[in-house]
Amino acid sequence: MNWKQLLSAKRWGYEYRDVHDHLDARSEFQRDYDRLIFSSPFRRLQNKTQVFPLPGAVFVHNRLTHSLEVASVGRSLGRLFYNLMKKDNPNIDLEYPFLQEVGNIISAACLSHDLGNPAFGHSGEAAISSYFTEGAGRKYQEHVSPKEWADLTHFEGNANALRILTHPFNGKDKKGYALTYASLASIVKYPCAAIDGHIKGNHHRKKYGFFECEADAFKQIAAELGLEKDPTNPNGYLRHPLVYLVEAADDICYNIIDLEDAHHLKILSYQEVEELLLPLCGTEDLRTRLDGLKDTGSKVELLRAKAINTLIHGCAAVFAAHQEQFLNGTFKSALMDALDEPIVAQMKKISKISVARIYNAPTVVQIEIAGYKVMNALLEEFVPAYLKTNKTMFDKKLVAMIPEQFHTDQTDTYTKIRAVLDFVSGMTDVYAVDLYRKIKGISIPSLD
Questions:
Q1: Would you say the C-alpha torsion 224, 230, 236, 241 has a positive or negative sign?
Q2: Which of 47, 77, 303, 311 has the smallest count of CB within 10 Å of its CB?
Q3: 249 and 178, same structural domain?
């Protein structure tokens, strides 16, 4: 793989257009970022859970604020990588004109990396999958292909993001969001189909990156960018190298910022957070600065900023130093796992504490259980109603609640199920709970 082809500014749905046809205040990749910022799926992230329940008296991160922060970190990673490359080769812009845009490409990909996540985070994903593996959805297995069944039984937010960005939804623009090929490829962490994913020890196939219905779309993206086939999977591909930087930006943010939220919610004390973050803050002696701050929240913010700075510089340096391995697909781990051993050890310590104290905190577990039940119940109502040939009056009323954009004229079972999943997975936490209460008769809409 080579940077010249990998950084294509060709736009999905506008392949015929010369990207140099017009003058603009923004580059093609900055336009990607702006299209996402103004999009409805992105705005809906403000009401989707990141880790903790949506805010009451104390504000914590949601999917939208998380995505914005990941995009900021991703932009820095890309810019640092470019600066390191230019330092070694001052004429690199002549060889690779778009290399200076990697920060913009990565920030756009980071902005969209969680677009496909359903309400209630990973609990929502699990609820959708279990509906088909353990619930009433099991009966549909005989009506779909093995590849399609693998999609349904392993719902994947990453694959759903690619679908949201490229699928011609009913009544919407047939070109989707018309992002550049480089930005689209940079969000696909596991470039294979569901039936070929979930392979332990294979970083390209840890999960999967596109639904069966988007297989041809990703094949088109891969051909344009020159993505190489995965030697362990003839139907899959090696990652676009920038995926590693998008992944690193996400890893940096959630590992560090979840600690900040946990401190705000009094799950972790300031002393506990300091002990976890201070070893990541580089060589600068922060003790005087920390002691000069009276507000513990401000102290955590300083530690968070310094820790993120250390991780950004470390990841960018590894990416630049080993770029040939990233280009030929032989780099076998996440960037964060390739940092200096003391940093990796400290991040493992943070992960262990996070699992024990944060991700299993009572409020987190409660929202996961509630979300699981809500999402499962919605599928139990909408999937059979949409698939039935002879619908009851109640079925017709349920189907009428599905917005027109999610309906399909196709009659096969998989496409119709996917239409319902598009509807349910796009819901915010608040909307999903409200709809659940209404269709279950728990709350009655006002007649005023």
A1: negative
A2: 47
A3: no
Please tell me the predicted confidence (pLDDT) of residue 221: 95
Q: Please check the confidence at residue 210 and state whether its pLDDT lies above 80.
A: yes
Cα(187)–Cα(70) distance, integer angstroms:
12
Beta pairing class for 229-230 and 233-237: antiparallel
Residues 347 and 407 placed together within one structural domain of the fold: no
Outline where 167-269 has alpha helix (H).
Answer: 181-185, 215-225, 242-264
Chain CA centroid to CA 98, Å:
24
Q: What angle do CA 147, 151, 157 make, to 5 degrees?
A: 150
217: CATH: 1.10.3210.10
Measured distance CA(395)–CA(380) in Å, rounded: 12
- The two tokens of residue 175 are 């070109």
Give the model's confidence band at 276: pLDDT under 50 very low, under 70 low, under 90 confident, else very high: very high
Same-domain pairing of 27 and 44: yes
Q: Which domain holds residue 427?
A: 363-439
- Closest Cα partner for 316 from 68, 8, 88, 74? 74
Residue 317 counted as domain residue: no
The per-residue DSSP string of 100-128 comes to: GGHHHHHHHHHHHTTTT--TTHHHHHHHH
If phi > 0 it is left, if psi is from -120 to 50 it is alpha, else beta; for residue 121 that is left
**Phi, then psi, of 54 in degrees rounded to 5:** -60, 150
> Could you give the CA distance from residue 106 to residue 182 in angstroms, rounded to a whole number?
9
User: What pLDDT sits at residue 176?
Assistant: 83
3-state secondary structure of 230: strand
What is the DSSP annotation of 248-315? HHHHHHHHHHHHHHHHHTTSS-HHHHHHHHGGGSTTS--HHHHHT---HHHHHHHHHHHHHHHHHHHH
**Number of domains composing the chain:** 3
